[in-house]
Amino acid sequence: MTDVAPLPLCSRLSLSIDTAPLLAALSRLPAEAWQPHFNTGYFSGDWSGIALIAPAGAHTALAPGDGEPQPTATFHAEPAWARVLAQIEAPIRAARLLRLGPGARIREHMDYDLAGPGSDMRVHIPLLSHPEVEFLLDGQLVPMQAGECWFLDLSRPHRVDNPTQHARIHLVLDCRRSLWLRQAVADGLPGTPPLGSSAGCRAFAAFQQQVAHDAALADALMAIETRDQFVAQAVALGAVHGHHFAPDDIHAAMRQGRQRWMQLWMA
Q: pTM (2 decimals)?
């Protein structure tokens, strides 16, 4: 089905996920089953996956495609995968286990294939996730916890940082739009914590406040001519003053500033 109603930024679905059999199945997967993610241009460290359902004809099992969805041998080997997917009342076009290794980071990007009224809807089910892992969607921290089920509009800017010594593993589903899934997303789960801000975003905001009250620091930044040099120097000066943030934190703040300006201009 297609529709024109806008989707929310994200929504925690009211589903009960029993993670015990999923974690048991996960523990039985051989190390060599994990394959590097195909989008090598915007991550550092280990970002890898295992396909459970993949579209026929895709150039890799982890890549999107328009072919008929095909369950893999890994999917058939463990009944736990089928049991959890049966709770999603929508056609599933792809199902993957995605792992972000210790210290790994996915830089900010947008999944353009998920934009538009006829696109798939992406659902994340965290299986292993340390509390310090940060998933930022449109600059906001999504409070996903293991055993929950979330819709995320990943056509919007998003990034993930795993600063811990533990792997983060999600079961990620690409689903066709259905009345059930649209309603589940619209309803959400009452009591879900609000979106927050990352440690890096908070540090950059604190640095901005310091710059506003330090003429010499402001002049040093104003003298920089190019955007890339400005970002690099801001990160370095921030660290000198005890504010630790990344270039993506600056880019997110710049984008949000442009969005606020456009909203004021169009009002």
A: 0.83
